[in-house]
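F.,

This is the one I mentioned.
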């Protein structure tokens, strides 16, 4: 058992880097599938009880986007059910709806939407709008035919000006399609930092015990470089495995070029190595360092231009984030590659920006790390 425990501890870093992203890919993929947003629970409030209102209710019931789970007795009940999470929206058809249609005075209905979930809310708004527009189209064609216009002519007249929409790259507006490149970037970041930074902390503790002149040689190059390359190799294996699993199990598109996917990750890992050196220089306690790295998950994901676009950020904020953290240069182009099949010309700014970031921060971080060790050695020799 002791030998087994020692062996597990020896391979623990590799297990963390490989197994954790794969496990999270399966967990998040399962939680966010299927890819289509269907069966949104809604309720109907029919205050008119006319044939026109019943037709609208039937149209909503026939649409696979909605699941009409019942009828409400009042607008207050609808609001209460939305508040309690029982439904995500409601349709209120007011009294006189059918008469307004017959009199051509502009019938109106109210669509209540739970805006707390933007993806569900947007789908509900979109398909409710389509149902009402199609019904409006039918009514106008029917009215023209009643007035003596031929069916073909009436349809041509109504369709004089029309449009068609096509949602590119993520036509189903699926959670998983949108979020996965960002999630994978964070998985790689967190596992790599959580393994490498503690290793560098231990190396720092070892080097500070050497004689003062011992720091003049390269910092543990023979010991640390093979370990870093090994971790990077397992990170490549993990990320490619995650992409293949996401594609096979959850239909995540893999349109991108494999070479550029690997180049992006290579640049990202070099940058993360620099960040690990900085963190190892700042912290002296492994637990505190690990806790801080875990804290980085949400702030870095939300502030590097993925979930919230750069042009919507406060002036200068995005520029600062690009200078101090490398995630921007990895998960944004990864999304472009996977969903759009983008070429190098579409991601070249990310590649060049990532190279500049790595070229600056890796040597700067090594200098900070060496300076911290020198300082610690001088303090101990006082």
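My design for it:
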């Amino acid at each position: 058992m002791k030998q087994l425990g020692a062996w597990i501890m020896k391979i623990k870093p590799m297990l963390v880097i490989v197994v954790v992203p794969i496990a999270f890919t399966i967990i998040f993929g399962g939680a966010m599938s299927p890819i289509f947003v269907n069966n949104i629970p809604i309720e109907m409030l029919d205050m008119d009880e006319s044939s026109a209102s019943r037709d609208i209710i039937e149209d909503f019931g026939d649409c696979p986007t909605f699941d009409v789970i019942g009828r409400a007795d009042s607008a207050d009940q609808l609001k209460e059910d939305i508040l309690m999470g029982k439904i995500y929206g409601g349709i209120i058809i007011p009294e006189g709806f059918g008469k307004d249609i017959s009199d051509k005075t502009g019938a109106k209905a109210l669509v209540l939407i739970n805006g707390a979930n933007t993806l569900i809310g947007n789908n509900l708004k979109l398909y409710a709008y389509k149902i009402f527009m199609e019904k409006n189209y039918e009514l106008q064609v029917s009215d023209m035919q009643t007035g003596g216009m031929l069916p073909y002519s009436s349809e041509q007249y109504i369709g004089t000006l029309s449009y068609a929409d096509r949602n590119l790259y993520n036509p189903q507006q699926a959670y998983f399609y949108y979020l996965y490149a960002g999630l994978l970037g964070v998985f790689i970041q967190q596992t790599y930092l959580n393994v490498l930074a503690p290793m560098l902390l231990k190396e720092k503790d070892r080097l500070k015990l050497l004689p003062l002149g011992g720091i003049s040689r390269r910092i543990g190059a023979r010991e640390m470089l093979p370990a870093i390359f090994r971790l990077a190799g397992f990170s490549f294996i993990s990320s490619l495995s995650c992409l293949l699993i996401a594609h096979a199990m959850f239909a995540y598109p893999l349109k991108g070029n494999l070479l550029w996917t690997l180049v992006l990750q290579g640049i990202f890992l070099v940058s993360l190595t620099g960040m690990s050196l900085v963190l190892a220089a700042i912290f002296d306690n492994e637990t505190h360092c690990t806790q801080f790295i875990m804290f980085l998950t949400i702030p870095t994901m939300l502030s590097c231009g993925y979930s919230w676009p750069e042009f919507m950020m406060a002036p200068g904020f995005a520029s600062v984030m690009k200078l101090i953290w490398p995630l921007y240069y990895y998960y944004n182009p990864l999304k472009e590659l996977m969903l759009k099949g983008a070429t190098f010309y579409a991601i070249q700014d990310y590649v060049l920006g990532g190279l500049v970031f790595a070229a600056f921060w890796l040597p700067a971080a090594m200098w900070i790390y060496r300076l911290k060790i020198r300082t610690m050695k001088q303090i101990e020799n006082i």
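The longest helix spans residues 344-381.

Talk soon.
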